[in-house]
Each structure stands twice: as structure tokens, then as C-alpha cells.
Amino acid sequence: MSTPHDHNRDVAVHGDGHGELPARFENPGLHEHTPRQADVDPRTSKRVERQVLALFTLSILGTIAVIWAYFALPPGETVGSMRVSNLVLGLGLAVCLLGIGIGGNYYIKVLMSNREYVEERHELRSSDETREIAVQMLKDGGEDSGLTRRGALVGAGVTALALFPLSILVPLIGNVGEDWNVRKFKHTMWKKGTRLHTDPTNRPIKASDVTIGDVWHVIPEGLNELEHGMLDEKAKAIVLLVRLDPRDIKSDQSPAGETWGHEGIVAYSKVCTHVGCPVALYEQQTHHLLCPCHQSTFDVADSCKVVFGPAKRPLPQLPITVDDEGYLVAQSDFAEPIGPSFWERATK
After folding, report:
1. Structural domain tally of the chain?
2. CATH number of the domain that 280 lies in?
3. DSSP H helix total and E strand total for the chain
4. Neighbours of 320 (CB within 10 A)
5. Is the pTM value of this prediction over 0.90?
6. SS3 317
7. Tell me: the pLDDT tens digits for 196-251?
8. CB–CB of 101/116 below 8 Å?
9. For the chain: N or C, fewer Cβ within 10 A?
10. Integer distance in angstroms from the first to the last C-alpha of the chain?
11. Residue 278 domain boundaries
12. Is residue 192 part of a domain?
């Protein structure tokens, strides 16, 4: 009987020290190959080939639709035009990817050879003869895959793969000349004397109409009268108005000590300082304001400072007061840029 340290014999000792087991087992070899229907029936093979060809062609058409929609259906200034543009672009991209993915997967599973081959290990540097054999094996594999006999299918697949990147590159290239002036985020429509109106009914708000615990979605007066750029201005100027018990407010002053609220009524930008999602989930008992995208949480009673989540700075506060008629008006624009932080976020 050999010992555990005897490496010269092809036997091994049991863990309990009794009996012997062979250290090597006979190679069972490959399992018997089972041909698929497409391997034995030419009609099935042709039918699958036509189906894959149709899927690749559909992908090509999807890419063309994306490029056409990008130029022919710009988002425009209305919600309806944006919805149509995004819908066509999304469907086109879906058709591109699904056509390539399903067609390629179907071809591999049904038409390409599914035989298993074994190549014995050899030295890293093969002989010239072995290399010639390997090259011939690659050629035979290409022939076995059917690619050399299915020119139309190969052409459609290559064309689909070649055109698909255009559905991503064209919109990117088209945005090269767009307006990237981030300084526009430093100013909004709010200015001294601008009344606070309800969103979307566009009614002015009296301070007496706002009770403790109320939450109002607010836009600046005159927003709906803009002919162009209304959506852009609204995206920057949206405000959430909340009335708290004045005794619960920890801080309601600017860095210079000015009061920015009115009898417990405070107004803050709805644009999250993390990535710009609309912050609108208010918890009355804790006075916390939650962003639904990434759960950044702000304390309305304490200048909307961040109490949880990835946001790095408080929501900008809109200074408000009342006019002679008792309507809520802005004292000025936001004192700092709204929205996420960016590389030129200076307050002046």
C-alpha cells in the first residue's frame, strides 16, 4: 500500500486510512451528439435562416427610425411633442437591440454547429505543422457554422451591428453645438414683487389662505404667458410652499440675518440638489421633505438642510413676503443657483 506522500503511483488513500482509490479516472469522453431539427431537415434550416434575416432587417429599420425621429421629431416646447419624440426614439432603440439580440441568439442556438470538440493540451509554442492544422480547423469551423454559405444572412447581421451605434452616436453628435451655458441656472423668473401662483391652476395665493400643515405647489406669476421656453423656465422656478407653526421653525433667515418667510410660511426650490429630481414628498409631523429618486431628505424647519441621503447642500430658499393686498410675493430671486451642484456654481 502506498503512503499519502508517494506520488509515483496512481493511487490515493482514503481519509480514514483504509482502502485505495485510483488517483486518476478514465476519461468518459464526450456524450453522444444529438442532432437538432435544423441539422437534419434543410427546410427547417431555411425557415430559421429567413427568420433570423427578418430580425436583422428589423434591427436595421429600427436604427433608421431612430435617426429619422431625431431629426424629424424634435422634442419641441410642448409636453405632447416631447412625448411623441421620446416614444418613437424609445421604440426605435428597442427594435434595434431586440432585432440584433434575438436574431443573433437564435442563429447561434439553431443554425451554428453545436458539436463539442476536445483538443488535448500541448506546449505553448506549437509546431508549424500544428499551426497549419489550427488554421485549417478555423476554416473548417467557419464552413461548419454555415456563415460562408449564408451570405445574405451574414450581410444583414453585419449591417445591423454596423448601423446600431448610429442610433447612439447621432444624438450625441447632434448635441455638440447645443447650449451648455450652466450660468443660466443662476437665475430664474423670480424677482422682487413676483406673485406666487398655484401650479397648475395659476391662481395667486393669499397668505390667509395657507393654513398650518398646508403644502402648495407654486410657479411664478406670468409663467404660462411665455410663448417660448416655458418648460425650461418652469423647470428652474418650481417651488414648494409650506406653512409651519412659527414655534417649530429653527431657522428662517438668510446668511445676512434677513427673514425669508412670512408668519411660518416658507418656500423652497423643488429641484433636488443631488441630481435635480422634483422634491415634493412632505412629512408633516417631522417637517421633512423627501426626494423620491434617491431619498435625500431635507428639514423644512431648519432652512431645508440635508438630514439624510446623497444631496450635499440645502434646497435654495425663495425669500417671500406679502404685498399690500395680502398676496404672497417674492422678495427676490433665489440667492444661489438651483439644482445640482456644478463646476461654475458661484452665487454672483
Report:
1. 2
2. 2.102.10.10
3. 7, 12
4. 25
5. no
6. strand
7. 999 888 999 999 999 999 999 999 998 887 766 677 788 888 999 999 998 888 87
8. no
9. C
10. 89
11. 183-330
12. yes
